[in-house]
DNA sequence: GTCTATAGCGCGATAGAC
DNA sequence: GTCTATCGCGCTATAGAC
């Protein structure tokens, strides 16, 4: 009935946009392509989102929200070791499950700008994330290590070379690299 | 003399393009902006380069050439340990010296495409680079580790957070992270 | 509230005069 | 070697049909 159809358009649009973004990149995807895939006109797309940037932000938002949840959960752990383990597990799992989108995050300035904006809106978010990894003591090596880890895992996880790997294998492999960098022994059985 | 002026235009154009690219990104830099900065018209720019992609490729080329030299030098080392040390030192040094451009490499699809193209043109190049790090034995963990390392160092080295660091400090810190991932003890005095 | 039709402006790119 | 003129297309914007 109409309910199904009506509230669907915006959601369908985001789904279609995500698919096209991962196929052609953000800049390689025109509003016309999105409109055509939905069977509507450009102006109809423009009715739901004021700008193209607003679309990219809406596409990226759920994953960023999820990441915020992971950081909060990690901070709630009692020991520093448990905090690092929790963040590592959660971050790797997030990257693996959303490989295609994460690859976009790290290689497309369209999405990158959206992420920057969202991260800056809750100003303290990035600091909170890094703080879990580097601890309250701001050591230079620790900061750079954390950045190498986060960027490396995100990019390697989204790279075409690891695309053939199944989720479980990729997750375990990335986790192994992360644990090594942080001197955390394997915890799984 | 006219010689100074004549052969200068193409070089000046590349320098100006690089500056504008690092300021506004590749996609954020129009041919009009480049032309205006040089005091000529768009069409004049087109005389020197057939397409915008050709400009980005020419901007990226010197650094890629340098990286090829580093890989070749590394492969010429006698022991695997020396090969890894050489590549690590060379790669980190390259990233640090060309921070701004490397940041573009890893965050802008315009440059990324140019790099892809150049890397694919000498098809074996990327394989040769990875082979130095993973050895002749293709182990899954080693491959992912190498990717995390290369991507992490490149992105962390170009990130705004480390911009205030001087070259020497950044180089030593990135090297430390790399050595840790590869179980290589510090070699410097 | 949802969409179509239409137009403005800037972009990369090309053709051809000087 | 540099210019003017022009093209097609992409994002944005508005007016108005349903």
**Net shape of chain A:** elongated
Q: Determine the oligomeric state from the structure.
A: homodimer
CATH topology heading of the largest domain in chain A: Tetracycline Repressor, domain 2
Distance between the first and last residues' Cα of chain A: 50 Å
The fraction of residues assigned to DSSP E strands of chain A is under 5%
Q: Largest contact between protein chains?
A: A-B, 33 and 34 residues
- The CATH class label of the largest domain in chain A is Mainly Alpha
Helical content of chain A, roughly? over 70%
Written as H for each helix and E for each strand, in order along the chain, the element string of chain A is HHHHHHHHHHH
Largest sheet of chain A: none
Radius of gyration of chain A: 19 Å
The tally of strands of chain A reads: 0
InterPro entries (chains A, B): DNA-bd_HTH_TetR-type_CS, Homeodomain-like_sf, HTH-type_TetR-like_transc_reg, HTH_TetR
Keywords (chains A, B): DNA-binding, Transcription, Transcription regulation
Pfam families (chains A, B): TetR_N
Organism (chains A, B): Amycolatopsis coloradensis
């Amino acid at each position: 009935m109409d309910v199904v159809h009506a509230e669907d358009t915006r959601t369908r649009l985001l789904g279609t946009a995500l698919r096209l973004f991962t196929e052609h990149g953000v800049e390689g995807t025109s509003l016309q392509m999105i409109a055509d895939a939905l069977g509507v006109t450009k102006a109809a797309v423009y009715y739901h989102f004021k700008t193209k940037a607003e679309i990219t932000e809406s596409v990226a938002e759920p994953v960023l929200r999820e990441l915020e949840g992971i950081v909060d959960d990690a901070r709630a752990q009692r020991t520093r070791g448990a905090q690092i383990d929790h963040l590592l597990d959660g971050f790797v799992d997030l990257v693996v499950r959303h490989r295609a989108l994460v690859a976009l995050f790290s290689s497309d300035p369209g999405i990158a700008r959206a992420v920057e904006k969202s991260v800056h809106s809750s100003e303290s978010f990035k600091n909170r994330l890094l703080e879990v990894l580097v601890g309250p003591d701001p050591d230079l090596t620790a900061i750079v290590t954390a950045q190498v880890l986060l960027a490396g895992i995100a990019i390697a996880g989204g790279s075409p070379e690891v695309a053939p790997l199944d989720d479980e294998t990729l997750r375990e492999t990335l986790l192994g690299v992360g644990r090594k960098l942080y001197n955390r022994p394997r915890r799984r059985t």
